[in-house]
Specification:
Helix content of chain B: 55-70%
Largest interface: A-B, 31 and 36 residues
Number of helices of chain B: 20
Number of strands of chain A: 41
Shape of chain B: globular
Number of strands of chain B: 8
Radius of gyration of chain A: 28 Å
Structural class of chain B: alpha/beta
Strand content of chain B: 5-15%
Radius of gyration of chain B: 24 Å
Largest sheet of chain B: 8 strands, mixed
Distance between the termini of chain B: 50 Å
Distance between the termini of chain A: 63 Å
Oligomer: heterodimer
Helix content of chain A: under 10%
Chain lengths: 468, 553
């Protein structure tokens, strides 16, 4: 009896297997039977995640059965109007092209709330600010003078006038501030009464925030400054082809450590130097024991760099073996083929905050683009990096940030902040986030997804949650 | 005499040509396993779309196989549960009475209160069918009172705590114990203490049986390896002398070969006697019970428990397919057949399955394994620490998987024997190869390699429809497979022996949760040792017979 059942079920299961498997494989590859044509048709799909999730999806105006995150399958090739809706948030919509056997990824769709979660941090009218988020403090100033520096304690919501307590700095005019997300420290570039440029280290963790010991001056304005908050007391400066090293604690004057330098960069305690003869060397931080990485004599260095006229280069060494050279005139060169990626106009680059993610955002005054240096695993010959123009219609782009796991870009164009898609199908949607005080800068904290900015009318400092 | 020049079932004694063939055939299972594993891994990297296609087909194949196995596992379990209530003494008597009993069986079965109504119906149908077959084919039924049992218990390093329970239960068996002869097969090399233990057991329990033989197997007999087969062969030869000296024909003797820890269920020998009596070719048959590992199941670590339960269930499923059933672990057979074929191989580790193949080839394919839905309980491999248990379990599974050593010999035997029908050769040879290759590959393919196309997806693959749809299909397959797992969990709970324990409900819930270890346990403690064994056979390396550690708390 059991033997008979075994044989019976064996043939039943075998038959089912032979029927189901080809269908499952065809389905996996996107094939479906079109009942009208009585033939197999290739389909495509859209994978949608959203922030916040649980949003309703509309395909060609029809509500889809699943909410985000979802995969809309079995779409015949063609154009589809997609809309993502969630109560309390602005609708997101796009016309997307579905290609056979291809998956279009909308991961994630960021939904902007009608009423964003925001609070006013400082009620003092400000001209600029220094976010020291790790120390739960924010510094604002209401006039260019350091004397007007205010400190707001984010924890106790208390504002303290800090400028009065820094007599050394009272006559200095703030020109620029260098900060980094992972540090509470800031390097303030200021101009003294004698027009001399000075650098002041602001350490919110110290009792004395800025002292004479933490102030430095250079013979003249540097072409390039390198300051790393992880080694905060050291500054490297490039001045007319000479490289200087300064230490707030040790030296009282800038020490020249190398000459004939066209550009430099520092990574993990190693100094990378592009010399005027187009050799490229690596050394310790004292510029002793230089090891050549690229010889000018073999002409490759000359071939790469001589085509571009540049006063100096800023060098960025990535975690991978990618090295970027940005010239004073805005050319962008790398050590990957075809070496020269952009001939001019680049005003800034922003590397990916994700480790080993070789994607670079670059911007000129009017455009934002993406250079994708990631290597394909299964290709034999190295290709050029993918260059994508994300936003070509800017007026005066001043700041650019990666947002939400590199899926979006936040940028300041003139006096407005925008959120731009950096992934998924074109066109890349751009949405206005807020207006800010004229010529002020913003700060974006990726871990908390929080934007700090000065509101346009009074200049009050606002903290705004950008995405959940 | 069946054959003028019987096939020599051994790795060693053959001509250079046969040696080469043996070597080539020994490479095949491992070669197939490695080719499948490496092939799909490489394909996942260089052609992820094609790899995804192969993996989908493979996943669906395993889903159907799993559902098929679950179905027959449940049916076999049902038969096992019903047969627990069968009165085997009555059934044996019915066989002797033949015609008269056919009239009375319905009444007799109805009077059996241990059987449910479904059980009564099943037993009636089964018994009536068997009796009709016996009458129709005029099957000669031996007299119950003429039958004898030899129970060979192989002892190496096992303590008295492990060996004694099996003998104790045997002494109280429902089959007349004055026709049972236990033979303790003790290895001389295991020392004086083991010899003394065997003699103590003989002194204590000898009077309960027809006789009690202690066979001390000397070390270093020419042609033998240090394997269990050599020990039990030596003991069986002593038993043969014993029965020959008493003029008891071997066709009336049934031999059971047990491990030291085997404890037979109370109905085992009666059920065995019944199956032996009713079978027309009883001297050309082995009798395979369901091995369960219940002796120390409450103390064993979770991973070992899940694995052994899995082995029991596999054997339960195999029992439903007598055409391809092969002996495994403790089992019984006709003593006449054992003597005729020249006992167990004395140089092979996998004596339990090798004895079937040896008999199958000796009798030119006219040898069968009869499934019995009664249990023999053994120990779950357990050492003093979890880590040692893990190692011991790994070694035990590798030893089981070393059953692959039969493949080259069996195929050589098939090639030499023209009398075995080709279809049977293909069926058995194909199953033997497929079983071992699947054993070594399934865990890796399902738990690891199947995910490679998705994990190492290049940009092109991750933006393809296949990337998303294959994940959906795999998820659906796994959800359906979970239903099979749910049945397995329920059956495992039903099969567990009762024990007075604190929080029995919580303990059973914990046992059920342990089944979630299946992917890990089956990959690293089933597929990996099998791959290890096949690789050793491929490279021509032998394997040492290591006794699994079995401790009791």
């Amino acid at each position: 009896m059991l033997l008979f059942l075994r044989k019976l079920f064996f043939y039943v299961f075998l038959g089912l297997y032979l029927l189901i498997t080809p269908y499952a494989i065809l389905y996996a590859f996107g094939y479906l039977v079109n009942p009208h044509e009585r033939a197999f048709v290739k389909t495509g799909l859209v994978s949608i995640t959203s922030n916040p999730h649980n949003a309703t999806i509309f395909v060609e105006g029809k509500k889809y059965s699943e909410k985000t995150p979802a995969v809309v399958r079995e779409l015949l090739p063609g154009r589809y109007r997609l809309r993502v809706h969630r109560k309390g948030y602005m609708d997101w919509g796009k016309l997307i092209e579905i290609e056979p056997e291809k998956a279009t990824q909308l991961e994630p769709v960021v939904l902007l709330p009608f009423r964003p979660e925001e609070e006013t941090i400082s009620h003092q009218p400000g001209m600029g600010f220094i976010p020291a988020i790790l120390e739960s403090k924010v510094y604002t100033w209401s006039a260019p003078s350091l004397k007007t520096l205010n400190r707001t304690d984010l924890f106790f919501r208390k504002e303290i006038r800090e400028g009065d307590e820094i007599p050394e700095a009272k006559d200095y005019q703030i020109e620029d501030v260098l900060t980094e997300e992972g540090s509470a420290m800031a390097l303030i570039k200021a101009r003294g009464p004698d027009k001399q440029i000075v650098y002041l280290l602001l350490d919110p963790g110290e009792e004395k925030k800025m002292t004479e010991q933490l102030m430095f001056s250079l013979p003249k304005e540097a072409d390039l400054i390198h300051w790393n908050p992880k080694v905060p007391y050291q500054i490297f400066a490039l001045l007319d082809g000479d490289l200087y090293r300064m230490d707030f604690r040790k030296d009282k004057s800038a020490i020249k450590i190398a000459g004939g330098i066209l550009g430099f960069g520092i990574k993990r305690g190693r100094l990378y130097l592009l010399n005027k003869d187009f050799t490229f060397t690596e050394s310790n931080l004292s510029a002793a024991k230089m090891e050549p990485l690229l010889l000018g004599a073999d002409r490759l260095g000359t071939k790469i760099f001589s085509r571009i006229k540049a006063r100096y280069y800023q060098i960025e060494v990535m975690d991978s073996d990618l090295i970027l050279f940005r010239s004073s005139e805005g050319a962008l060169i790398s050590n990957r083929l075809p070496y020269l990626h952009l001939e001019k106009g680049v005003e800034g680059i922003r590397r990916s905050p994700v480790l080993d993610d070789d994607r670079i955002l670059f911007w000129t005054g009017t455009e934002i683009g993406l250079l994708d240096f990631r290597r394909d695993k299964d290709v034999l010959f190295e290709r050029e990096p993918y260059k994508t123009m994300l936003f070509p219609q800017g007026k005066n782009i001043r700041q650019v940030f990666w947002v939400y796991e590199n899926s979006h870009v936040l940028f300041v164009d003139e006096n407005e902040v925008y959120l731009l898609e950096a992934k998924g199908p074109k066109p890349y949607l751009v949405r206005s986030v807020t207006r800010i005080k004229a010529n002020s800068r913003v700060f974006y904290h990726e871990r908390e997804h929080v934007l700090y900015y000065l509101e346009p009318s009074q200049g009050y400092l606002i903290r705004r949650k950008l995405v959940e | 005499m069946q054959n003028n020049k019987p096939f020599c079932f051994s790795h060693k004694t053959f001509s250079p040509g046969q040696a080469l063939l043996e070597r080539v055939l020994g490479i095949l299972p491992g070669l197939f396993s490695w080719m499948i594993l490496i092939g799909i891994t490489v394909l996942a990297f260089i052609q992820p779309l094609k790899a995804a296609m192969v993996i989908i087909a493979y996943h669906i194949y395993w889903l159907f196989r799993l559902l098929y196995m679950t179905l027959f596992m449940a049916l076999a379990f049902g038969v096992h549960e019903i047969e627990k209530g069968v009165d085997w003494v009555e059934r044996c008597r019915c066989l002797e009475e033949k015609e008269q009993s056919l009239v009375n069986i319905r009444k007799k079965i109805k009077s059996n209160t241990k059987l449910s109504r479904l059980g009564q119906w099943f037993c009636y149908k089964n018994q009536a069918r068997e009796l009709k077959h016996i009458l129709k084919h005029k099957v000669d039924i031996p007299k119950f009172d003429d039958l004898y049992h030899i129970v060979i218990i192989a002892v190496a390093r096992e303590s008295r705590k492990v060996v004694e329970p099996g003998i104790k239960v045997l002494a109280k068996d429902r089959f007349p114990t004055n026709r049972i002869v236990p033979v303790l097969a003790v290895e001389e090399r295991s020392g004086e203490s083991q010899r003394q233990m065997a003699l103590d057991l003989k002194r204590e329990y000898g009077s309960s049986f027809m006789d009690f033989i202690v066979a001390i197997h000397p070390d270093g007999i020419e042609g033998e390896s240090r394997v269990k087969g050599a020990n039990v062969t030596y003991a069986a030869k002593q038993a043969a002398d014993y029965f020959a000296s008493r003029n008891i024909p071997f066709e009336n003797v049934i031999v059971s070969c047990f491990d030291a820890d085997t404890v037979a269920s109370p109905e085992y020998f009666m059920a065995l006697t019944y199956h032996f009596m009713r079978h027309p070719n009883r001297t050309r048959a082995s009798f395979q019970p369901i091995p369960v590992y219940h002796n120390n199941i409450w103390e064993a670590p979770g991973f070992a428990r899940v694995l052994e339960m899995g082995s029991s269930f596999f054997q339960l499923v195999e029992a439903t397919n007598p055409e391809k059933l092969v002996t495994f672990s403790s089992h019984s057979m006709s003593f006449k057949a054992l003597v005729e074929i020249g006992y167990w191989p004395v140089d092979m580790i996998s004596d339990d399955s090798a004895i079937f193949w040896k008999a199958y080839i000796y009798y030119h394919g006219k040898y069968q394994v009869i499934p019995m839905y009664v249990t023999l309980s053994m120990d779950v491999t357990m050492a003093k620490t979890r880590w040692k248990t893990l190692l011991s379990v790994y070694r035990q599974k590798r030893r089981w998987a070393w059953g692959v050593e039969n493949f080259p010999i069996v195929i050589r035997g098939f090639l030499k024997d023209a009398k075995i029908p080709l279809i049977d050769k293909l069926r058995h040879g194909g199953k033997l190869l497929e079983m071992h290759v699947s054993w070594a590959t399934v865990g890796f393919l399902i738990a690891i390699i199947g995910w490679l196309p998705a994990i190492f997806a290049g940009r092109e693959f991750s933006s393809s429809v296949v990337y998303y749809n294959s994940a959906r299909i795999t998820q659906l397959i796994f959800n359906l497979a979970l239903s099979g797992l749910a049945v397995t969990i329920i059956l495992s709970l039903l099969l567990l022996p009762r024990k007075k324990t604190r929080n029995p409900f919580l303990k059973r819930v914990l046992f059920a949760i342990e089944w979630l270890l299946v992917p890990l346990v089956f990959t690293f403690l089933s597929s990996l040792p099998a791959l290890d064994a096949q690789t050793r056979l491929m490279s021509g390396k032998g394997m040492e017979f290591r006794i699994s550690e079995k401790t009791r708390r």
